[in-house]
Amino acid sequence: MYSHLEDYIYELYLKIGITEPKELDLQIVAKKLSVEILDKKKTYMFEDEIFLEPGTESAG
Predict the structure, then answer these.
(1) How far lies 17's CA from each of 31, 37, 48, in Å?
(2) Which residues share a beta bridge with 46?
(3) In degrees to the nearest 10, what's the CA dihedral of 20, 26, 27, 28?
C-alpha cells in the first residue's frame, strides 16, 4: 500500500510522460514540468522559487 504522497507523485509522473527510471533526472523532470533549475550559492526557497546549492543539480 502506498501513501497519498506516493500516489500523487506516481500520477504526476504518468501525467508528464515519465515511465522509466532513466527519466528520473532533475533536468528531464523540470523540463516536462516547465520549470527552470537555477543554481545559487545557497539553497533556499522564496515564494514559489527553490534555489539549489551548486553540485545538487544531478548525481550523474
Answers:
(1) 11, 19, 24
(2) 49
(3) 20
